[in-house]
From TrEMBL:
CC terms in the record's Gene Ontology section: toxin-antitoxin complex
InterPro entries the record matches: HepT-like, HepT_RNase_toxin
Protein name as it appears in the record: Uncharacterized protein DUF86
Domain of life, source organism: Bacteria
Length: 66
């Protein structure tokens, strides 16, 4: 369970980073900014990696959550 908490923290941290990168950008500004695109994509990768490492139990305990 402790490992799951660390992975969940990684997910939340990456989500917050993405939000901070794009919160003041328009869609058009984002599409033109390769550096921000790369940063967002990297954090999406981190989210995916952390989600894949979560235990089956965490999914089973939260299967009805949306």
């Amino acid at each position: 369970m402790r490992r799951d908490l660390l992975f969940l923290k990684d997910i939340i941290n990456s989500m917050n980073k993405i939000f901070n990168y794009i919160e003041k950008m328009t869609k058009e500004d984002f599409k033109k900014d390769d550096l921000t695109i790369d940063a967002v994509l990297r954090n999406i990768e981190i989210i995916g990696e952390a989600a894949n490492k979560l235990s089956k139990e965490i999914y089973e305990e939260n299967e009805n959550e949306e």
